[in-house]
């Protein structure tokens, strides 16, 4: 199957700085648009359907799976998340490049179906630095941080599946490096 989708996938462990780097990329590359994922998790206060996520009931998600509506979908912490084909089509039809922030499991599924996409793994300088960043955030317990570090170690084993690995030493350096990769890959 030929990939007609213009798509960038960014993955990396929790706490590595994906969200901040992506905000910088969206500011600096106007042709880039963040794809909205579908999920079965409950909507949180302040979130909007169609803006933060497409919130699906389990039956709707099952139907979308059956109808092959997803580029990929995964179970994450008891809920399902997926990237809708029509979301990438919508972005591409607006003459933009889709950007997906996704875990390694989902990234591997997308890359398997569409090997032509640009995939970037954002890695911490070291696991110790990642643990320090997670601790400084102050949003998780020590047990939760330990679990995230275990998950990060598993994710780091999958970097060979990505086109590029960018070490997030600073937000500025990482953003510029990924911006260069996108600009080069899409002739911007």
Task: Estimate the mean pLDDT confidence.
Answer: 92
Structural class: alpha/beta
Terminal residue distance:
25 Å
Based on the structure given, which CATH architecture is correct? Answer: 3-Layer(aba) Sandwich
Structure summary, number of beta strands: 9
Describe the structure.
With 188 residues, this protein is of the alpha/beta class. It has one domain (7-185): P-loop containing nucleotide triphosphate hydrolases (Rossmann fold), CATH 3.40.50.300. The protein has seven helices and nine strands, in the order βαβββαββαβαβααβα. The chain has helices at residues 18-28, 58-66, 85-93, 104-113, 127-137, 142-156, 171-185, and strands spanning 7-11, 32-34, 38-39, 54-55, 70-76, 79-84, 97-101, 118-123, 164-167. The strands form two sheets. It has a five-stranded parallel sheet with strand order 2-7-1-8-9, sandwiched between helices. α1 packs across α7 (171-185) and α5 (127-137) runs antiparallel to α6 (142-156). The relative contact order is 0.23. The mean pLDDT is 92.
What is this structure, in a nutshell?
With 188 residues, the chain is α/β, with parallel strands linked by helices. Helix content is 43%, strand content 21%. It has helices spanning 18-28, 58-66, 85-93, 104-113, 127-137, 142-156, 171-185; strands at residues 7-11, 32-34, 38-39, 54-55, 70-76, 79-84, 97-101, 118-123, 164-167.
